[in-house]
Design a protein that fits this description.
- The longest helix is centred in the middle third of the chain and has 15 residues.
- The protein has one domain.
- The protein is built from seven helices and no strands.
- Helix 3 runs antiparallel to helix 4 and helix 4 packs across helix 6.
- By secondary structure, it is mainly α.
């Protein structure tokens, strides 16, 4: 039996693609003082900017950084400006795949996100 899609491709993009409008970027991707403190503990501008991107995208649209989906330049520039790093440093982020995984786990704990699975939620 074929799976039925609830959303069209356009509807899915409108809901889940990172915004590119300035007001939406400011609303969704302004880092808190706590975010900046956590990010500041990372070594090197690439890791600081990468972790900030993980935090921002995990909050909205809720998926974190995904290798197959790029981060719009306007968001990258906005995050970099908050951290006083060069946006081009992001190209060096995650050269070691484990770094992205470690940062995703760190962000999930930091944001108090729980894994949704049968064991966690006691589903039959």
């Amino acid at each position: 039996m074929a799976r039925r899609r609830l959303l069209t491709g356009d509807e899915r993009r409108r809901l889940f693609d990172p915004p590119v409008q300035e007001t939406a970027i400011i609303g969704h991707y302004t880092l808190s003082a706590e975010d900046v403190e956590l990010v500041g503990r990372r070594y090197g501008p690439a890791n600081r900017l990468g972790l900030a991107a993980q935090i921002a995208l995990m909050r909205h649209p809720g998926f974190g950084l995904q290798p197959e989906i790029g981060l719009p330049d306007v968001i990258l520039q906005y995050l970099a400006a908050q951290l006083f790093v060069d946006p081009s440093s992001f190209s060096a982020y995650g050269q070691r795949a484990q770094t992205r995984t470690d940062h995703a786990d760190l962000v999930a704990r930091y944001l108090a996100y729980a894994r949704f699975d049968a064991a966690t939620w006691h589903l039959p």
